[in-house]
Amino acid sequence: MAWEAVADLDQLEEGDMMLVDMGEPICVVRLYEDEAVAVHNTCTHQQQPLNEGYLQEDDSLICPAHNSRFDLHSGIPTGVPAVDPIPVYACKIEDGAIWVDVEQQLNDAAIPHKPFH
Ligand code: FES
């Protein structure tokens, strides 16, 4: 797999996020008009889905289960209880769509376990 269009721009407005199945569950977040990010959808604390979390103004995402906070550019947890980073993937906006390449992981985070539910 390489670059894959996961959404038209009009499907995902600024501040919105969506879950995409790319073999791994991927959370795509449109941060700004011209910027989107893609991270693994699984919280590294107790494997809950991050796409139901809360986007913050500093481009971090808070897990809805126990409030772990992850920087969406680096994947690094910036708020406990999570201590391990989430994988971050190559993501771009081009030709009116959001593209993700899950073969291009941008950090060295381990792939989290899939959600148990
Ligand atoms: S599962 Fe995300 S903070 Fe616990």
TrEMBL record:
Residues 3-100 form the Rieske domain. It comes from the Bacteria. Signal peptide: none annotated. PROSITE patterns: RIESKE. Pfam families: Rieske (PF00355). Keywords: 2Fe-2S, Iron, Iron-sulfur, Metal-binding. InterPro entries: Rieske_2Fe-2S (IPR017941), Rieske_2Fe-2S_sf (IPR036922). This is Rieske 2Fe-2S domain-containing protein. It comes from Actinomycetospora endophytica.
